[in-house]
Every structure is written in structure tokens, then in C-alpha cells.
# Entry
Amino acid sequence: LIVQATMDATSAHRLFTVEMRHAVEVGPDETEHLETWLEKRMGRKMIVPQLDDHGLTFIGGRLLPSGGQAAAQYMYEDAQGERVTVYMARTAAEARTSLRFLEDDDLTTVRWQDGPWVFFVVAPLEREKLSPIAAKVHDTLI
# Structure
């Protein structure tokens, strides 16, 4: 399931980050609505991490399917237009893991699990640049 969720997170990143008008379902002007909506669908408290101190502006989020359940994706953009996504989904297996880095072609993915929840931060950034962003997301969502 973790392998499938990893593929889902990177596929969603690749699919939606290239979109200009339809990158997200709910924009940043409706962050509170997005959190409430996703909370109902995901069955857990949903918080949009604030990553302004890392040069990333929140541009919105969306609901996605993952293994027959709901998954969520938040999207951020830096001043150069590079996009970073945060993806979260529920798994059948309970675990607690530290941050793990995966590199695939042009993307770096950071993954961790907390109980049944698996989290991913995906970006076309080097590990050194993505690590503090992932740590901030981790600290916000756990």
C-alpha cells in the first residue's frame, strides 16, 4: 500500500503541477473551507501548513482517490514558479516512520507515516532544499 500511495503522490504531482488554471480545486482564498471539507472526507484534522518562511506560497488543494479512499493534496509555488505538493492518504497498516527520501528522475519525494496516515512532500528540488520544507510539514501535520 505504501508503494501504491507513493506512486499516487508522485503521479498527482506530475499531473496537476503543470496546470495553470486547474492546478487546484479550492484556492487559497478558501483555505478554511478546504480544511473543513477535507477533514470531513479524510476523517482527520486537516491543516494547511504555512510555508511562506521557505519561500512557498499556498495556491490551494484538492481531494483525490487513493485505494478506494479519500486522499488530499496541497500545492505551493515559489517565486520562480516551481511547485511543491503535499499529499496525504490513509493506509491499512499502522506504523510510525521517520522522514525517508526517494529520488526519481526530476523529483524528490519525502515520505513518512504516523499511525494509519502516510504523508508525502514532492518537488523538483534537491534533498538539501526539500528537507527543511518536509520537516516543517511534518511538524505541522503530526
